[in-house]
Design a protein that fits this description.
- By secondary structure, the chain is mainly β.
- It has 3 domains: 32-132 and 134-161, Immunoglobulin-like (Sandwich), CATH 2.60.40.420; 170-316, Cupredoxins -  blue copper proteins (Immunoglobulin-like, Sandwich); 325-467, Cupredoxins -  blue copper proteins (Immunoglobulin-like).
- Helix content is 7%, strand content 40%.
- The protein contains 5 helices and 30 strands.
- It has helices spanning 6-14, 26-32, 146-151, 193-196, 454-458; strands spanning 39-49, 55-64, 76-79, 84-90, 99-101, 125-130, 136-141, 156-161, 170-179, 205-208, 215-219, 223-230, 237-242, 245-251, 254-261, 264-267, 272-278, 286-291, 298-306, 334-342, 361-363, 380-382, 387-394, 400-404, 409-414, 423-424, 426-429, 434-440, 445-451, 462-467.
- The strands form 6 sheets. It has a 6-stranded mixed β-sheet, covered by helices on one side.
- Strand 1 and strand 2 form a beta hairpin.
- The longest helix has 9 residues, at 6-14.
- The relative contact order is 0.14.
- Bound molecules: CU-O-CU linkage and copper (II) ion (CU).
Length: 468
């Protein structure tokens, strides 16, 4: 049986002479990824070609000093268990912060204004230093004026490597997001209130890696690790592959104990899907990644097979090594209600981090007042080391990707689906779904939880829990 070690890959690719250490299409992305720290990360404004036709002005993005000219935020590479160190400087005209979505790190590094750190004003810097405990696919984005800052570009990928990860023939990471652009390629209003009170306001141009329907190549007959991250502010994707078979190897950064065949998968803002894709044997054959809902299927990206076949076998794929995890002790768990509903009360207070001026949503009947020095009381106070079960009830006719900072939870039971025992930081709760999420409160601090449809987050669907 083929084991995907670095050695077999070197052997396999030697005869081919094409792919160096077995990495084909990966090189493009990897060249831009970060290997060593400390790095200097900055937020800045730029112009970029987002719709493939006209330069869009007023794009907001991240950059590192590596001379790369690609305007997309760089993919940051970290190593599990190794310190990451970034000096972040804000070159925007407004305050910002950086949140590291899905990383279970020290609360002071979590990037939530007032709750965990002060704003980083124009020209100011902040040192983000932490050690990611888990390997996998994650991402980073601001937690200040998020609809504008993320809507205009500030969503970047994080890859946390595990030295024990198998090596594949190629790796391709996809940053999925839409843009709200007018016919002239310039930004239009980021949201419409009537849509914010429903599913959220969709973009007008769909993209991956800041391109419309990008095309990649990968070794024919090779195994490709596809890291897909939904960083859009609104869109829930229903993904399907055409032209190849694939296995799901991780969800939301966490390896599946057993890889499962991929048919379709829904991934909502904040969520990640890691696939192992077996490229076709024939040189030039193309695989398409499609978004099949809600409208006619739309190509997200495509992958062309290149060279003579490597003849890999999908069945040989083994599970990725698991991340550390303390299983919840359900027998001693305390239950916490978490009810999502619509509201019209208490329009958000004005805030330096932006308010949309509306209140449409609430958690346990309380609409979040916005980022303020005087936030509401925590939704719950948790004791370090104890197990809790969130009884999450969705009393709205819309789906909400609920994201918790700083800790992972395990899905225990749902009234609508047979709940696989997934470990995650973001759960897409469906209309009228009731789901139980269990966790061990293993990280001290104030941690926000919110819907990752940013218009919902910013119009009330946010709260926080306190672990002491
Ligand atoms: Cu990616 Cu508070 O979120
Ligand atoms: Cu929502």
């Amino acid at each position: 049986m083929l084991r995907l070690s670095r050695r077999t890959l070197l052997k396999a690719s030697a005869g081919l002479g094409l792919y160096g250490a077995g990495l084909g299409a990966a090189s493009l992305l990897d060249a831009r990824a970060q290997a060593a720290t400390p790095i200097r990360l900055q937020a800045r404004q730029t112009d970029a070609l987002l719709n493939g036709q006209q330069l869009t002005r007023g794009v907001m993005t991240y950059a590192v000093d590596d001379g790369a000219s690609d305007p997309m935020p760089p993919t940051l590479r970290m190593k599990r268990g190794e310190a990451f160190d970034a000096t972040f400087t804000n070159h925007l005209d407004e305050p910002t912060t950086v949140h590291w979505h899905g990383l279970r790190i020290d609360n002071r590094m979590d990037g939530v204004p007032f709750l965990t750190q002060p704003y980083i004003y124009t020209g100011d810097s902040f040192d983000y230093r932490f050690t990611p405990p888990d390997a996998g696919t994650y991402w980073y984005h601001p937690h200040c004026n998020t609809l504008t800052q993320m809507g205009r570009g500030m969503t970047g990928l994080i890859i946390v490597e595990n030295p024990d990860d198998p090596v594949f023939d190629a790796e391709i990471a996809l940053n999925l997001r839409d843009w709200r652009l007018g016919g002239d390629g310039q930004f239009i209003e980021q949201f419409k209130p009537r849509d914010a009170a429903r599913t959220g306001t969709f973009g007008t141009v769909r993209g991956a890696n800041w391109q419309v329907e990008p095309r990649y190549t990968a070794p024919a007959g090779g195994l490709v690790r596809l890291r897909i991250v939904a960083t859009d502010v609104t869109r829930i994707y229903t993904l399907k592959l055409q032209g190849a078979l694939a296995m799901i190897i991780a969800l939301d950064g966490q390896p599946l104990p057993t890889p499962t065949p991929f048919d379709t998968a829904m991934i909502a803002p904040g969520q990640r899907l890691d696939l192992l894709l077996r490229m076709p044997d024939e040189d030039g054959a193309t695989v398409s990644l499609l978004d099949i809902r809600p409208s006619a299927p739309k190509t997200v990206a495509s992958f062309a097979a290149l060279g003579s076949t490597l003849k890999r076998d999908l069945q040989d794929v083994k599970a990725l090594p698991q991340n550390p995890w303390t299983a919840p002790d359900l027998s001693s768990a305390e239950e916490i209600p978490l009810v999502l509903s619509a509201t019209a009360e208490n329009a958000a207070r004005d805030s330096i981090c932006g308010t949309l001026g509306y209140s449409f949503w609430a958690i346990n009947k309380v609409p979040w007042p916005g980022d303020t020095s005087d936030p509401s009381a925590p939704l719950a106070e948790l004791k370090l080391g104890k197990t809790y079960i969130f009884n999450l009830t969705n009393n709205t006719p819309h789906a909400h990707p609920i994201h918790l900072h700083g800790m992972n939870f395990q899905v225990i039971a749902s009234n609508l689906r047979s709940a696989p025992p997934l470990i995650s930081d973001t759960y897409l709760v469906l209309p009228d779904e009731k789901v139980q999420l269990a966790l061990v409160a293993d990280n001290i601090g104030d941690w926000v939880l919110h819907c990752h449809v940013i218009e919902h987050q910013k119009t009330g669907m946010t709260a926080y829990i306190r672990v002491t």
